Structure formats: C-alpha cells, structure tokens
Amino acid sequence: MATVSDVPDEPGQPPALTALSLAETSQKSKTKEQIITPFDVLGGIDEHGKAVAIDYDKLIDQFGSQRIDKSMLERFERLTGKPPHRLLRRGLVFSHRDLNLILDKYEKDTPFFLYTGRGPSSGSMHVGHSIPFEFTKYLQDAFNVPLIIMLTDDEKFLHSPKLSLKDCRNFALENASDIIAIGFDPTKTFIFADTDFIYGGHGAAFGYNILEIGKKTTNNQIKGTFGFNDTNNILEFAFPATQSATSFATSFPFIFGLNPKTVSKIPCLITCAIDQDPYFRQCRDNAPRLGLVKPALIHTVFLPSLRGSDSKMSASDSESSIYLNDTDNQIKKKVGKAFSGGQDTRELQEQIGGRTAVDVPYQYLTFFLESDDELESLRERYEKGLMQSGEMKAAATKELQIYVAAFRERRKAVTPGLREEFMRPRQLKFRSMPQEKEQVAMLEERKKALRKELALIDGEMERLQGSGQA
Prior knowledge:
It is a single chain. This protein is of the alpha/beta class. The chain is about 50% helix and about 10% strand. It has 22 helices and eleven strands. The strands form three sheets. A seven-stranded mixed β-sheet has the order 3-4-9-8-5-6-7. Strand 8, helix 15 and strand 9 form a beta-alpha-beta unit. Helix 7 packs across helix 8, helix 10 packs across helix 12 and helix 12 packs across helix 15. It is globular.
C-alpha cells in the first residue's frame, strides 16, 4: 500500500497564484477571472460587469486537488461509525489531497494527527472562522487523534502594515479563547501562538524543521506560488517554511516522542479553506526531500460575505462579517442588509421565485441549519416564489442568533487558566502515544534544561547582589 509520502502530487498542478495569472483580463473588456490566494479572495466578473460567485469546480482543476465524492463519504462513515457532518453532506467540505491515504492509516490503526490554524487579525473571530474549527472538532471526535492549532500572529504582523506586534499577540490570545469555546478536548489539543512557542524557547525542534524546509524552498518558488515581488519584506518570503513546519510530527517531540525513525513517518491531515492550499503545496513538494511525510489536506468553501457570494467574510471588515461576539440585535441588522437573491417586488418574487445560488441568507442556512429536510423545504419554497426574501432573512437570523448565543455562553467559561493549559507544551492523550518510559525521558530532558537555566539565573543574581546593584 502506498504511503502519503510515496504519492506524487496529482497532475494538473495550478499555475503561479499571481494576480496576473488568476485575474487575467480576457479579450472581453469587462470579464475577469476569479482571484483565490492566501491574501485575496474575489469571484470573477462576467461580460456584463457583474460579480460572479466563486467557482469551486474551477479551483479543483486549477489547484489539482480531488473532489470528495459519495464513495469517500460512505467509507468515512463505515470506518468511523459517524454520519457525515452537514458540511460534508452538502459539499461545503468539498476537496482533498490524500484523504484516502489518511483513511487507510485509520483503518490500520496507524497514528496520524490533525492540524489547523488561524491568522489572528481581530479581537473576535467571525462565524466564517468557526466553520473550519467546528468541522475539525468533528474530525477529532471521529478519529480520536491529537490536534495541533497554530496561531500565526507573526505572519499577520509581517503582512499587515497597520498592525503592531503587540496587537497581533493580543489577538492571538483572544482568538485562542474563541477556539477553545468551540469545544475541543484539552487532553488531545495543543494550541500555540508562533511568537510565544517558536521564539519563546519551547520550539527548538520546530525551529529545526523551519530551517530544513526553508533551505529546500527557493525565492522563485515563493514568487511563483504567492505572487510576491521585491516589495515584499524578507520575512514574508520565509514564512511558508514556518507554516509548513507544523505539518511534521517531528516538530512536537513532547507530543509524539523522540524517536525520529517512527515520528517522521506520522502524517497529518490539515483542515483549511481552499485559499490556504498554496502553503501546503510548497510543503508537499519539499517534504519527501527531507525524508518526511507529505501532509494530507481537506478543503472547505468560504462563508460568503454579507455583501455577496463573490467574496468571503473578512475579520478586518465589519460590514462583511458576523462576529462571534455580536449581539442578537446586531445579527438581525446585519442579516437584514445582506445581499438577497429575491426579486425586486413581491409580485415578481411570487411569479419568478428567488435565486438561492446567490442569496446570502440562504447560503448561511446551508452552513448552520442542521436539518437537511428543513433546508430543502426552504430552498423549494423560495425558488417557487412561496416565500419572500424577508422571510428567508428571518430564518437565517434565527439560526445565526442561536449559533452565536450558544457560543457566547461557552466563551464565558473559558478562563485565562484554561487557555494557559491548552497552550502549554505537554503530552497529549491518544492512541499510539509514546510509552511511559519515553514520556519520562522527555520530561527529564526538559527538567535538565530548566535546571540549567535556573542555575544561570541564580549566578546572575549572585553577581548583581555581590556588586551591590540588586
């Protein structure tokens, strides 16, 4: 049976994700292709100058990923005993790289781990951010595997001219509390902010992998993948190696153990929105050259902006987003202004019906309403003109208010102490975890390092006291 690292990337790898290649203006004066990169998400423009919804089938072709089909969902349910999540049932988790090989691992009781993350750019996450995390929790429960969550506060600082490092660090802590409120198991989940973990003394093994993957990645690769040029700062070029390092179990010896021969063979499954795929395509290209396993990926669609299905919610744009700390009244007002697929008059709506494909309130219901039968009834009534756009907005408002209210209650229970526990480097509990003897050895290594550091501090204090400066 082939392993993840044995399988080459699928044919039809995407072209460079530059604005030039992804937003190339056609012969028709107003037509533009969609732009999907880690930094920009915009639907296309048609020949009439109108915005077009994001075409996910086109992304599968461009990115060279594979669609999650019915047979894969059936296999997932058969192996885990869990019915597919509503996001899987509705095609909102739609694409993958090597998910079949991860299912092979699970079937053979071979260890793997989950990895997801967040670039903290605001104090509160919005409901679009909660979707991948909710789905990741579902996977953690289904597979019973460890989960690592990376908060890339360093990347947000590097890429955002208006944000200070202090802002990004504070956002990371607030976002960590939001993520914990999704309901993750603290015995199986490690959350870290880059500025604390990598630069704070705990991430030596992580740093080694940054160096290894960074050495194998050229500037031309980064320019070709991300569209960077000479105006980007030098650390933006380096950051893909940092995001890649979380894909490797060897970056976390305190979780997976110290034996490089066994730990280097542990793969990960990354859950992310499709715009993050370029980071991990770089990682998949370079991992086998380091003797490491290619990460597998599973892609979600974007939760549409309040303005329309041609763009996604943005945490830095309050008019496009519903935040997880919004009040019921704020949610009602925002959904009331959301882009509607209804007709201009009641008479036209009854005669022609609404367009659920572009109706943002209906799109929100596909993400948050659990009942398939109720969702189908709403779709049918709206498209047949038996339901007005105001009624669709009311239905979406109700579901979002319920979802956010439940989150707010869970968020109240997340104390600074609980957050510290999630973010403390420690042994997680899972099948195939290191044996007790190895865990003790790892703890002894950490104690030795701490004793050495304490001895140095004691020596410095004695020096200062002896000189009368203390």
